[in-house]
């Protein structure tokens, strides 16, 4: 007797069919590569280099530390909730689909539509900000290499950003198996760079600040008052780094046993990012020098952490660790673009975006929605 099509499917695909969707992706992401994907979305080393300026401007050392502790804890709580929901409804629509079961029936269509579009806009903005930050860091490294004779302009940053966006979109047209292999290498590289940078900074910095300085020295430079309100701007750092946990949920249709691997990856990666971010922030604050935030904020490169590397380690090591940050930020942008294209695909599948049929076309050989991959960065 011939088997029905559903009998050829594994449990994850059967569950997807039960949700009303036909499986079209290849399930290539293992537990390890899914965890590595989740870690790559945060990119704590490169992302913190890019956003450290917010806490520094808000109030110096104390603002950096306390905004991470408080803001990061809130982001971690959000990630835990997202992990639980992604376990119950593992599909590329992620949170906007989940609202179908959580929202009041009367308001469910509107809330799902709003959630989907807000998430799409946020995903596109997040991808753009990642590309912009990568470009800033790359040009900052060039500025150091030229002894600050080259000073990046906004035009240069935007031009580099556009080029990187096209490169990362091109990489995302590769078969899913290739993307899995690329993603799997991320955690090892990231942890090696992060640990090396922390150890080297602690060894090379002669006049370290005290722990008391790290948690109590408050020097607001943002111009906002009262000072406590200014510290809230420091929470932009954990907000930018730790609030994209649902990006991992968008590859649920490409992961093996997604009801287990996706929530585990989200939780472990978010907790790891919170702890590692605290450690890296503390090391940077201890090694930032007695001059406080002002010398770092006035850096010719426009990157306070890059200036900190230069002052503490010298020009050559600073260039090396900055370029490591550029590499890691590229590895943030690639899975970020993948998650964004899957969001476009999911919304198109439910006919919530214009030209829906076009965005749902999946290349059979590659297992990739090629048009959605190019559409997300073009927007």
Please describe what this structure looks like.
The structure is a single chain. Helix content is 72%, strand content 0%. The chain is mainly alpha-helical. The protein has a single domain, classed as Amino acid/polyamine transporter I, CATH 1.20.1740.10. The termini are far apart.
- CATH level 3 topology: Amino acid/polyamine transporter I
- Care to count the β-strands? 0
Beta-strand residue fraction: under 5%
Helix and strand content put the structural class at mainly alpha
Tell me, what's the shape?
globular
Keywords:
379 residues, Amino acid/polyamine transporter I, 0% strand, globular, disordered N terminus, transport
Question: Could you give a quick summary of the protein structure above?
Answer:
The chain has 379 residues and is mainly alpha-helical. Helices cover 72% and strands 0% of the residues.
Q: Could you outline the blueprint of secondary structure elements for this entry?
A:
Layout: H1 11-18, H2 31-42, H3 44-88, H4 95-102, H5 108-145, H6 154-171, H7 176-184, H8 186-204, H9 211-216, H10 227-231, H11 236-242, H12 246-249, H13 258-286, H14 293-297, H15 304-313, H16 315-349, H17 356-359, H18 370-378
Helix pairs in contact: 2-7, 2-13, 2-16, 3-5, 3-11, 3-13, 3-16, 4-5, 5-6, 5-16, 6-16, 8-13, 8-16, 15-16, 16-18
């Amino acid at each position: 007797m011939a088997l029905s099509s559903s009998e050829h499917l594994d449990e994850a695909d059967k569950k997807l069919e039960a949700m009303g969707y036909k499986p079209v992706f290849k399930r290539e992401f293992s537990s390890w590569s899914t965890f590595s994907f989740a870690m790559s979305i945060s990119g704590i080393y490169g992302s913190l280099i890019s956003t450290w300026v917010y806490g520094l401007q808000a109030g110096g050392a104390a603002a950096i530390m306390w905004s991470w502790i408080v803001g990061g804890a809130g982001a971690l709580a959000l990630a835990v909730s997202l992990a639980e929901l992604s376990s119950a409804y593992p599909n590329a629509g992620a949170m906007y689909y989940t609202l179908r079961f959580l929202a009041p029936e009367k308001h469910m269509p509107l809330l799902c539509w709003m959630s989907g579009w807000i998430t799409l806009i946020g995903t596109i903005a997040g991808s753009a900000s990642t590309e912009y930050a990568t470009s800033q860091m790359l040009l900052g490294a060039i500025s150091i290499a030229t002894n600050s004779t080259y000073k990046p302009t906004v035009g240069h940053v935007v031009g580099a950003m556009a080029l990187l966006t096209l490169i990362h979109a091109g990489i995302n047209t590769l078969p899913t198996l290739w993307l899995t292999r690329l993603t799997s290498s991320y955690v090892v590289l990231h942890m090696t760079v992060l640990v090396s940078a922390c150890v080297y900074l602690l060894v090379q910095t002669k006049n370290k600040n005290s722990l008391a300085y790290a948690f109590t020295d408050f020097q607001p430079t943002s111009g906002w008052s009262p000072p406590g309100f200014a510290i809230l701007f420091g929470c932009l750092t954990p907000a930018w780094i730790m609030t994209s946990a649902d990006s991992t949920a968008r590859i649920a249709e490409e992961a093996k046993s997604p009801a287990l691997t996706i929530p585990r990856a989200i939780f472990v990666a978010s907790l790891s990012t919170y702890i590692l971010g605290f450690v890296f922030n503390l090391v940077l604050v201890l090694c930032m020098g007695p001059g406080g935030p002002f010398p770092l904020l006035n850096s010719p490169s426009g990157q306070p952490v890059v200036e900190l590397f230069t002052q503490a380690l010298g020009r050559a090591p600073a260039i090396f660790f900055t370029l490591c940050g550029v590499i890691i930020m590229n590895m943030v942008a690639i899975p970020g673009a993948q998650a964004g294209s899957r969001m476009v695909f999911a919304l198109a599948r439910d006919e919530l975006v214009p030209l829906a049929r076009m965005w749902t076309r999946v290349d059979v050989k590659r297992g990739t929605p090629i048009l959605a991959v190019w559409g997300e960065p073009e927007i």
